[in-house]
TrEMBL record:
Record function comment: Progesterone-dependent acylglycerol lipase that catalyzes hydrolysis of endocannabinoid arachidonoylglycerol (AG) from cell membrane. Acts as a progesterone receptor: progesterone-binding activates the acylglycerol lipase activity, mediating degradation of 1-arachidonoylglycerol (1AG) and 2-arachidonoylglycerol (2AG) to glycerol and arachidonic acid (AA). Also displays an ester hydrolase activity against acetyl ester, butanoate ester and hexadecanoate ester.
Cross-referenced PANTHER family: ABHYDROLASE DOMAIN-CONTAINING PROTEIN, MONOACYLGLYCEROL LIPASE ABHD2
Highest taxon of source: Eukaryota
Catalysis performed (reactions): an acetyl ester + H2O = an aliphatic alcohol + acetate + H(+); a butanoate ester + H2O = an aliphatic alcohol + butanoate + H(+); hexadecanoate ester + H2O = an aliphatic alcohol + hexadecanoate + H(+); 2-(5Z,8Z,11Z,14Z-eicosatetraenoyl)-glycerol + H2O = glycerol + (5Z,8Z,11Z,14Z)-eicosatetraenoate + H(+)
Protein name stated in the entry: Monoacylglycerol lipase ABHD2
Lineage: Eukaryota, Metazoa, Chordata, Craniata, Vertebrata
Organism annotation: Oryzias latipes
Length: 424
């Protein structure tokens, strides 16, 4: 210590740098803690939790589907975050996406609409030597040109499946509507038209039904609406759907897991899609959408507002509640009697965990249902990989084809056993 004009001046020596070093270490530790928590790095990997009744079919399926029973390992550095899985899927769909070659089909509907789907032939024979067609319904506002659809179609073709992919009404860019309506949450008309076309064109084919997200709701509702819709259907796979629109929309207004933000992003996407067809809605005489509806749409910030202003009017639902109730598969899915695989992820930021009680209860009650719940995967992500870079094929691509293969072989073996001659 030194003295200058009667005042004391302190010399701090070597202790001050040590304090700063401690603060730096604490800051680094805090950042690492936040990263670990946000990326969920301490979450263990595990096989999917499967709910099912113990039947000969479920035993066979689980034995034949190693992907469904083994540990799902997402990329280490980011794959355990449902938000990042969802964001990466939303931004790029898949990596190294192939470009399968298909033919676009157009089907005129009774109300003047024109349904479209793309047809992709298999590049090799199926392992059962049977003719099998996957009829695929994509997610909200999606079509056959989405990267995740193209990747899945290419993989299915190489495993012997013909693929028919519905293009949601109004979703294809630069394709004008021929009637004043678009796809809705649960309208099955276009999907039914595609399935009917496939049955007429390939009367010998058997069907595997696949639905992604909103498409999962549509395919399960389609099968449950009429028993005849299940004719020739081997199985159905539904991925990342919410089962009940009424319950889902209540959770979409919550900030938990940033769900309100996702709601805003999806609403903005839907708003742009609807506005791209504004001319059709305002110019056609049979339209139920007027200029006032379009003006209200411009200020909408949630899917609920868009559904109330526009979507429910396409099929003349008197209220938003009626629209959600009548278009949700939760009232039809228990009538599906073909083998049914329901897949969801615990960290899906779009599907609230309370909605997962629906498939869980269904699998406990019905012998044809298996419910697979993964720890990670986000919404439609399910990327696999070692540390940073994901593989081109996702866990989802593999498990759908494996499950389909197992059902195809089960059905083939069952038919062979019934027709085999008895010994005397």
């Amino acid at each position: 210590m030194t003295t200058l004009e009667g005042s004391e001046v302190h010399s701090y020596g070597p202790d001050l740098p040590a304090v700063f070093d401690g603060m730096k270490l604490a800051a680094v530790a805090a950042v690492l803690y936040v990263i670990v928590r946000c990326l969920n790095l301490n979450s263990p990997t595990a096989p999917p939790q499967t709910t099912y009744q113990d039947t000969l079919l479920s035993r066979y399926v689980l034995k034949s589907c190693p992907t469904l029973t083994r540990e799902y390992i997402p990329p280490l550095l980011w794959g355990k975050s449902g938000h990042l899985q969802t964001a990466l899927y939303g931004k790029m769909g898949r990596v190294n996406t192939p470009t399968p070659c298909g033919v676009r089909k157009f089907i005129p509907m009774q109300d003047g609409a024109t349904a479209t789907f793309d047809l992709f032939e298999p590049v090799k024979s199926h392992s059962t030597e049977d003719d099998i067609t996957m009829v695929i319904c994509p997610g909200i506002g999606n079509h056959s040109e989405q990267n995740y659809v193209r990747t899945f179609v290419d993989y299915s073709q190489r495993n012997g499946y013909r693929c028919a992919v519905l293009n949601h009404l109004g979703a294809l860019p630069n394709v004008e509507l021929t009637s004043p309506r678009m796809f809705t949450y649960g309208c099955t008309w276009e999907f039914g038209a595609m399935v009917g076309h496939i049955r007429r064109s390939f009367p010998q084919t058997q069907l595997v039904v696949v639905g992604f997200s909103l498409g999962g709701n549509i395919v399960c509702k389609f099968l449950g609406e009429n028993q005849s819709n299940q004719d020739g259907v081997l199985c159905c796979i539904s991925i990342c759907q919410g089962y009940s629109a009424l319950r889902a929309q209540e959770t979409f207004l919550q900030w938990d897991q940033c769900r309100r933000l996702y709601n805003f992003v999806l609403a903005d996407k839907m708003k742009k899609l609807i506005l791209s067809h504004r001319r059709s809605f305002l110019s056609m005489a049979s339209s139920r959408i007027d200029a006032a509806d379009v003006n209200r749409l411009l200020t909408a910030t949630s899917l609920l507002q868009i559904d109330d202003t526009i979507m429910r009017k396409f099929h003349s639902h008197s209220s938003l509640r009626e629209y959600y109730e009548k278009e949700s598969c939760v009232h039809y899915i228990h009538k599906v009697h073909v083998p049914l695989l329901l897949i969801n992820s615990m960290d899906d930021p779009l599907v609230h965990h309370s909605l997962l009680a629906i498939p869980h209860t269904l699998a406990e009650k019905l012998p044809n249902v298996i419910f697979a719940l993964t720890q990670h995967g986000g919404h439609m992500g399910f990327f696999e990989g070692a540390v940073l870079f994901p593989e081109p094929l996702s866990w989802l691509d593999k498990v759908i084809v494996e499950y389909s293969d197992s059902i195809c072989h089960w059905r083939k073996n069952s038919c062979s056993n019934r027709t085999a001659p008895t010994s005397t």
